Structures are given as C-alpha cells and as structure tokens.
Amino acid sequence: MASSSQNSGLVINLLQGDKRALAKAISLVENDEDSSSDLLNEIYLKLGRGYRIGITGPPGAGKSTLVDQLTKEFRKQRKGVGIVAVDPTSPFTGGALLGDRVRMSEIAMDEGVYIRSMATRGSVGGLSKKADDVADILDAFGNDYIILETVGVGQSELDIAESADTTVVVLVPESGDSVQAMKAGLMEIADLFVLNKADRAGADQAFTEIQSMLELSNKKDWRPPILKSVANQGEGIAEIIETIAEHRDFQSQQNLLEKKRKQRLFKKIKSIVRFRFEQAFWDETAYKTIDETLESYRNLKMSPYKIADELIENFKRKLERKE
Amino acid sequence: MASSSQNSGLVINLLQGDKRALAKAISLVENDEDSSSDLLNEIYLKLGRGYRIGITGPPGAGKSTLVDQLTKEFRKQRKGVGIVAVDPTSPFTGGALLGDRVRMSEIAMDEGVYIRSMATRGSVGGLSKKADDVADILDAFGNDYIILETVGVGQSELDIAESADTTVVVLVPESGDSVQAMKAGLMEIADLFVLNKADRAGADQAFTEIQSMLELSNKKDWRPPILKSVANQGEGIAEIIETIAEHRDFQSQQNLLEKKRKQRLFKKIKSIVRFRFEQAFWDETAYKTIDETLESYRNLKMSPYKIADELIENFKRKLERKE
User: Of A241, A242, A230, A224, which Cα lies nearest the Cα of A203?
Assistant: First the structure.
C-alpha cells in the first residue's frame, strides 16, 4: 500500500507525541482524504490508553465552561487532554462560535491541551464517525483524557455518547422541566448528571426532579449520581472528576469497559462499511442518473424507490465489470 | 410483484381517506416490513397535495402546545391535519411522554386529526427517513397539512426540517442566550421564528437578540420573520398561520417549493439506497464474522478497517454467486 508507507513517518511521529503530526493527522481525517483510513488502521492497535469523557446537554447548560474547568484540573495533575467540540453548523459562523473562540484562547495556550472544533455541515451520521476518528488520533497521540463535547440533545449526541467511556449529562435549573430533559433521551446515556449553575433559583427543585426520574430507572449496574456545580466559579469540579474516576474503576472491575469498547468497535465497523459503500456507490454516473431524473421531475413517472432500484442495478453491473 | 398486489387494496383505501388503511399503512412503514417500500412506491406519484410544516426548537419551548393550537385553527378551516411527533427514546417511556399523551387525548378526539409519535430507538438517520415516509402516507391519505414536530436541536432535527415545506423554529425567552440557539444551527433551517411564552420576562430582549442575529444572515430570498406567541393562551396563533401561508405563496411564486421538493426527493433516493444496501449487507454471516472477531477482542490483531474490508469482500462474493 503506497499510502501506508506515505503515512508511516506521520504515524511514528504521532505515536511519539509530536504536536505537528497530531494536527496533520486530524486534518487528514477531517478532509476525508483516502489515506486517512490507512492512518487510522495503522494506529488502531495502539489505542486504549486515553480515557474518553463525553459531555452533553441542552444549549446554554454551560458545557464549554465545565470542559474548561475539568481540563484545568486534569492539567494540574499533569495529564494530557484532547478535546473534540462538536457543533452543529451555523451559516453565520461556520460552526465555530465566539464563545468557543474565547475559551480556546484561554486553555489553548497550554501545551498539554489540544482542542478541535468540528461542525456538522449537515451530514447524516458522518460527524459522529469523524469525531470518533479524531478521538482515536488524540488517543494515539498519548492523551490521558479525551473529552467529547457536544451541544444539544439529538441523534448525533447519542452517537457521540456511545463513543465515550463515561458520559456526563449537564443540566441547569432552567433546563428542567426536567421531564423535557428526560424526553430528550439524556437519561438513557448519562453515567453522571451535573446540575450546573446550581446557585440559581430552582436548583433544589430540579435536583429533586432528576432524582425522582432516576428512581424509575431500570439501570442495574451503575446508578448515575447527580452532582451540583457552579462551573464558572470552579465549584463542584473536584467532585465531578472524582465521580468519573469512580465510574471508571467500577467499569474496570465489572469488565464493563471492555464491553463498551467492543460495542464501539462494532459500531465503527458498521460506519466504515457504510462510508466505503457510499464512496463506491455515489460516483459521477450515479449522480448523473439522478440529476437526469430530477430534471424531469415535473413529469416524473418514477418514484424514488424505482430510481433507487435502477441505481442499485447499475452499481451491481459496475462491480461485475471490475471483477 | 406479489407484495404489490397484496397492497393494492390498502393503497386504494388509503387514497380514498380510509382511517383504518392509514393506521395500517403507517404500521407497515414503522415495522420495516418488506411490503412498505412497495406501498410507498405505489403512493408516491399521488403525493404533493399536503403542505408540510416542521416545528422544532429546544426542549421546553412549548412545541407540543403550539402544534395543538395550530391544529385547532386548521380544523376550524375544515382542513385535515396529520401530525408526526418525533421523540428521542427514553428508557422509561419508550419515547411516548406523559405530556404528549395528555395532548393527544385532547385533539385525537377530532376525526380530522391523525397523530403519530415516533421514537428514535437509537438508529442513525433511520428515523428521519421513517418520519418522511409517514409524512408521505399522511399526504396520500389526503391531509391538507402535515406537521412534523421534533424535540431538540440535533442532526435528526435538521433532517426532519429538510422534509418540511416551511420550518418553524420555536424559542422561549429563557432558551436564549439566543447565541446558544444560533450555535445549535436553528438559524440555518428557520423559515419563521416563533418566540413562545412571550409574556415572560426577557421576551423583548430575546426578540432583539434574534433580530440582530438575523441581520447578519446571508439568506437572500426570504428573511425569516419573528413572531411572538403565548401558545397556551392561543395568542399569536393566527399570525403564525398567516405567515406560513405567506411563506408558501412566496415559495410557489419563486418556484422554490419545487426546488425544495426536488432536494427532498434526492435525499430520499439516497436514504433508500442506503437502507437497501444495509439490509443486503448485514445478513447473518456478516454478523457472525463480526461476532467472532469481537470475541477475540482482547487479542485483536485486526483493526476495524481490516475487518470492514473483509466483510466487503465477502459481500462482493455473495453478490457474484447470486448473479
């Protein structure tokens, strides 16, 4: 494999903790260059040292500030931290936001921290695969902690939570209506709840509400604790880090971490297969076929199901010719 | 096609507005039965009468109440309304929520309204396809309006917005930090903003914030208006309906509606292709191969990339044998 040997210098440098190699490897992944699968393939068997923490919750819950504080705390312990911040794209900002920029300038000065913001750009499922790939690279680089931060409560958040070893769901007193938070599926993915901005009115009530929802939970192994924090004042951060460590220990003892990582591997295989299929399928000819059909949309005689059938037949013929 | 003739009675009844046929057709789609693509294929060329309204926004914004009020208003005009409410799954409720149930019992008594709640169940991309399919069926049934209601601000919401002719983004004074709402990509998809619970403190400030973000917008054709409402008191509903009608007229005049529906068709073809591929690919043998590899995960010598390659080779061989 030509591309494999092209990457080998990059792989060696990355595994040795070279920051330039890290930036280059992440760019490769983000730009979907062909050689990125080779790179990811080569580093894969070196992974598993970094611990992955997912931080999710509704907009405005203070996730960025919390990630900031956790990072500072980890840095005090001389741990390396990689951060993947996932943002749905805004047409105004291209996915990078003023708030993030401010934050980044603060902790990005630290040599032991690497931050990468990623935007969705509207691709279904594609983002969670990429975020996971970037996490792999941050792991290979030798980071002790990889933090996956996502905004919102949609499908991509659930996907990214699946990529984490411990998932922290951040809520605020105003975001409950905790019932609404439950509705958003956050209960399902939380290993730990953080009620942030806990100095605000309604914090006790929100705490009680989350607690009573949790009592209905059928989670057997690990009952997610609820912690309070005031992230912008650094309150509650040490307790969060302690609880993450407890959850990590618990999972190691129960062999759950390995199970979780197996599931992650399975999911990864599925997404690689999907990605490769789509790359092979959606060539120029397929797009042309579809364009021609869409051109005559007004007089459309074919449903999308028939058009799909035709494209699939074309694809099979293409595969045969290649054999 | 055997299944096609099996469905023809169902198709006829559905197109004639039979409520039982509607329920049955939706069940077919939701349960992924093979005959559902045949059904969808048969009805496809009969579509386009119903107008699709997407309602999205952060949890707690009052979307359900708003949908309720819009529906009641449409019903006063003797219009048929179909509602697809998309919910991320909660392990406690299976995706259906107390609030929804209360609501449903209120407007579900109306013969001219059909409501279907759908849960994500963790499938990537699958839900938006299904919601779109259900919308097709509600359209074929003869509904004048199809309302797609989604909670949250993630990828699935963006997908579902793409399925709508007019997308209404619902915000509340407390949900801004409007900057956070922008971050969530809601600006990109909004044809119309509704600031709900506008009788609460901070409404004017939130209104101004949304307004100034919109001034930065590069949307050329249609500048999304911002309306205020107090949905649970029925305030502002008439204006919302009027603005939706204006947006509809605008799009018709500018030929934008056809363009939007073309894009929807294109997206649909892509998702059908993906769905069919995954159905063909992930057979028992593929799962077995993957299980065996995962069993030996501890001593894993293969990266997921190599495993994916192997599965793809197996799949190609399977296709060849079938030819």
Answer: A230
Three-class secondary structure of residue A230 per DSSP: strand
Instruction: Give Cβ neighbours of residue B106 (< 8 Å, ≥ 6 apart).
Output: B68
Burial of A46 (0-12, 13-18, 19+ CB in 10 A): middle
Of A152, A155, A216, the CB nearest to B124: A155
Contact A301 B45 (CB under 8 A): yes
From chain A residues 207-266, the ones with a CB under 8 A of any chain B CB are 213, 216-219, 258, 261-262, 265-266
Q: Has the ipTM of the complex gone over 0.95?
A: no
CB B205 within 8 A of CB B173: yes
- Below-70 pLDDT ranges, chain A: 1-6, 32-34, 59, 87-106, 108, 119-126, 151-158, 175-186, 217-220, 295-301, 322-323
* pLDDT tens by residue, A68-82: 999 999 999 999 999
Q: Is the CB of residue B275 less than 8 Å from the CB of residue B129?
A: yes
Q: Cβ contacts (< 8 Å) between B120 and chain A: which residues?
A: 155, 158, 185
**DSSP class per residue in A66-117:** HHHHHHHHHHHTT--EEEEEEE---TTTTT--HHHHHHHHHHTTSTTEEEEE
- The order of strands in the sheet holding B81-87 is B113-119, B81-87, B145-150, B51-56, B166-171, B192-195, B226-228
Question: Whole-angstrom Cα distance, residue A250 to residue B171?
Answer: 40
* Residue in chain A lying closest to B305 (CA): A41
- Helical packing angle, A126-140 and A35-44, nearest 10°: 50
pLDDT at B101: 43
What are the DSSP E strand ranges found in chain A? 51-56, 81-87, 113-119, 145-150, 166-171, 192-195, 226-228
Q: How many CB atoms lie within 10 A of CB A251?
A: 20
Q: Give the single-character DSSP code of A152.
A: B
